[in-house]
## 1
Amino acid sequence: MERWMTIYNHRKILIFHFLIANGMILRKLSASLTTGYGASCHSMHLRLLHTSCIRPLKKQRLRRNFHNPKPSNPKRSPPTIAPIVSDSTIVQWNTTITNYMRSGQCDSALSMFEKMSHRTSVSWNAMISGYLLNNRFDLARQMFDKMPERDLVSWNVMITGCVRNGNLGMARKLFDQMPERDAVSWNAMLSGYAQNGYVEEARMVFDRMPNKNSISWNGILAAYVQNGRMDDARKLFESNSAWDVISWNCLMGGYVRKKKLVDARWLFDRIPIRDEVSWNTMISGYAQNGQLSEAQKLFDESPVRDVYTWTAMVSGYVQNGMLDEARRVFDEMPVKNSVSWNAIIAGYMQCKNIDVAKELFDAMPCKNVSSWNTMITGFAQSSLIDLARDLFDKMPRRDCISWGAIIAGYAHLGHNEEALRLFVEMNRDGEKANRSIFSCILSTCAEITSLELGNQLHAQLFKVGLGSGWYVGNALLAMYCKCGNIDQAYVIFEEIADKDIVSWNTIIAGYARHGFGKEALRIFESMTRSGVKPDEVTMVGVLSACSHSGLVDIGTEYFYTMDRDYGITANSKHYTCMIDLLGRAGRLDDAQNLMKNMPFEPDAATWGALLGASRIYGNTELGEKAAEMVFQMEPNNAGMYILLSNMYAASGRWADVGTMRLKMRDSGVKKVPGYSWLHVQNKIHTFSVGDSTHPETARIYAYLEELDFRLKKEGYISSPKLVLHDVEEEEKEHMLKYHSEKLAVAFGILNIQAGRPIRVFKNLRVCTDCHNVIKHISKIVGRLIIVRDSHRFHHFRDGVCSCGDYW
Ligand SMILES: [Zn+2]
Ligand SMILES: [Zn+2]
């Protein structure tokens, strides 16, 4: 039986509580939306104006100065500009503008431009292309619109700018408005369409183009290659004979990317004149695809080797795990660049040879952000989080890979609060989260069961346009399942257009854990109907769906036919599900027989399933046997001691209960204190049994009394002799009424708006009495109460639980 979350650390809840209570996470998340991502064009525009290097620039002044070229601010001390100027002076000024722009000094360029008494179209064009160079697209467009007489260069610069800025619509509009066009204009449109995947449109431009040059031919060839249409590329290539080496390399590179090395080699052997790119493409093609001997042969033959050729060999050897060979080439390299260093460092990191990696990193003369990232990722993946953090704190510049590596490192070790804190800090730093950071943070969110934070991340994802696709979709799906919102999980599942096996497995397992076995099976059926082949994980989900919902016959049939139908051999998880399933139905003999016939030794989980079944049906003898096996394999499994101890208690064997307690004490097994928590308005409220620390204690207890009264009126009698599952402490009869889950549920009813479900999480299994009481409460208050315990979700509605009273 899979455990979702065995132990939940109090401290973590408190820290997270602190973060949320101070509005740190939520406020900063929303702040980052406006500052980090520029949610709309409008805010982007404002930001450009406010943060641009032309600090005091106001639109009005810009406009005024176009009509009045005199310097507007007498306090500035500019070079004096004569009223009549020679051509050479204008050329000089234009050069100055260009130089300012090239060094990123947009404000100096503008002030120069404003002071010029005479301007040529070259001056205007220098400003437009300068702004574009500095990613000030809006300012470039303003300049272009104000320009009194545009020439061909102005139009071409502006169209190219639109294309680079991803604004194909505007590029097309300008292109259609142009009084005359040259090859540059046509080629700009062609490459714009090609780069954005509009191959047909690119081809239309190419066909309409009056004077095609080699750039146009290479442009359309690249359009096909970049979009993976190698057959069309080949056809085009064969329709013309005047290709240059760029074209040959482009086509060859396309084949390499498609891993069609034979085709690539065929071209390589026929290139009239090979350049470095040809050699490098072919060598790295071989190297990346594991054909190291071919790569080495070409490398030895190659007439010119540059740093890329060498690096291709180093990376190839590293990627194929041949670290010694990689090191040999690396040491022989006459000139190394950062890529070569990073490749060899990554190689040592992958082999967990941390010391050598660190040595190389320290010796590296040209560290760039990738080098730091390689080290941080390596440390984080080796669970050396402190070393990773040390480098992360020291690194001069961070990118989203750095943030992703350190956040994933913390999340992987279960340091959820630190992962979230860093995520908030990243947003504050203005770094944009990529898909992998989002999916990491979504898993963290699932770990801490914060549906509210999960909802916010969901909204943020869609705002920044990362919400589609299976990668983030699966993380969202899992988050909603684990945070207890299975309906929303299903909505997400339906929205994922490119579902992969993980999407299907997640929703099936999700429904199973929430006790909606039939839903899980319905989805499984539609999965097989749509031609997706189930894997081992799918079948664990399917069998546990049957087991959680008591569908014994269906489950048994799936178990015995999955090999024939899907080629899946049962593993120990499948057997555990089956034993659970048979045990639930009271077929303890069948369960035991199945265990005997297992092709491998049963593990602790399998014995645990048998123990659980024995408890339900009061078969103490079988329970003892199963427990004995679990203790042998997992001497520290506190849950099993308590389970057995409770079985003794249920059959009145109090002496054995005492022995179990002694045994637990002697073997140093620690009881895990039971507690429950729930999220209300961005705060986590945690309760332990008989808790009196919560500020609303009095109100909660009074309400529980009231509920108790109403329950008794309905005829419900609490039975302290009921078998208790997990916690010794909670066994005390007078405490029964104040178990943590009851306190949490009462608090939820009092504080969560009517009509909304109450979601409570518990670190241990819910006890029988609480289970019964919560069922009745759900009926008398008319609320949906969802309780996640250490084994599964219980949906209490109208006096019934989705688990069918088996858990
Ligand atoms: Zn209880
Ligand atoms: Zn239940």
## 2
Amino acid sequence: MEIKCPSCNRIHRLEVDGAVPLIRCACSYEIVNSGTSPSPLQTHPSDPGPDMNGTIAVKKELSALIEISRLLVSTFNKDVLLSRIISLTAEVMDVEACSIILYDRDRDDMAFYMSKGPGQDEITQIRLAKGEGIAGWVFLNKKSVISQDTAKDERFSRKVDDSVQYTSKNLMCVPVFVGEEIIGVMECVNKKGGASFSAIDLTLFESMANHAGEAIEKARLMAENIKSMRLATIGQTLSSLSHCIKNILNGLSGGAFIVNKAMKDRNLELIGNGWDIVDKCIARITDLTMNMLAYSKERVPLYQSCNPNKTAREIAHLLSKRIEERGIRLNLELCNNMKEISMDSYGIFRCLLNLVTNAIEACPAENGEISITTRATDRGTAIFEVHDNGAGISDEQREKIFSVFFSTKGGQGTGLGLAVTQKIVEEHRGRIWLESAPGMGTTFFIELPSKQEAAPA
Ligand SMILES: Nc1ncnc2c1ncn2[C@@H]1O[C@H](COP(=O)(O)OP(=O)(O)OP(=O)(O)O)[C@@H](O)[C@H]1O
Ligand SMILES: [Mg+2]
């Protein structure tokens, strides 16, 4: 009897005399043959012949490979990928069970990672020593194995069969590689209908195992990327915030020093000046904390019926002292027929606070001018406008200003204000945009719908 090696096409002549002939090829194939006559496919793996069953099987195998390739580019989820690979393998191989067994570096042994077939849940509790059973042999030797009769294969271990009360009659086991490194094995057990495994089965199985290796590697790279992105973000967050907090603390201790000295000197005017500094620093740290809280979690706005004019007036009142101190002129142009809309008044207050604070900081040292305007549109929406006659925003900056931590104010700004504002507006299903040209000042617009859909129960 002749068997052609599917990998290198060498012809192996076998004497079938009841013993278990082990076909050792110079390439990586090692096939244990039970002595039964091989199917035509085994003898001529490269020529499955024109029979209908063969054509249907090849089509099925091809579509399985195509599906896995597609899945590999569409998801990074290792378990989703491996589960589909195992199910498809069991289907196209026409076997009763298929498992993936991975090497555990920490324990220096192997664990059934996932399994489809009889006792699949119990099987995932089983561990194997590195050389244990055919799976362990494949792992150590990095070679594929077809065992057409496990009862006659001395490498076979009954550990899994015994624990799930099952009988493995024949099996195929192939290494799973990531690059040159072996990370585990895949195993197919019991070809349905008592059939033998063919060389074509082995080739397809190895291809599935390659995809499994790819899926595992992809998931590992993704996890690594996420970890380094998270570390980079934490680093950036800490450095941006600590820079700003340090400046506020400097301001606070400066203010406290003045107050202390003025108290010793019983200088009431100086106490007032020192307290002013402390007051401003408290306002800044409060703003920063509120922005951090607003940015750090997903929130559903607490909608209430509220008139946007009221919020605009409150902001003008709150910031009037700061505006006055800088010699800025404030115009409050409120819409006469503004109706109440459904909004989270605290959230929108925070948005306007961020926009008007930016406007104050952008205004020129002399002749600064800010307008806060409200408008009701024909579409039933409400618009807030905040205009300043500052230096304006360049096209280059415009692309980044809503990004978290983008700031041109050094230690005086965290770059959270606009990111938080955009987040709150989007939570309201509204929109925010700006018009600006260098030297022409800037106008920020916030448009909010008048009604909000009820939040899902
Ligand atoms: N009205 C404006 N005129 C000019 N530039 C502006 C204006 N508003 C925002 N910017 C630019 O956008 C950047 C980001 O603004 P944002 O409010 O997010 O952060 P910030 O003001 O720097 O710090 P903070 O978190 O304290 O508000 C600002 O640093 C500034 O460069
Ligand atoms: Mg700001």
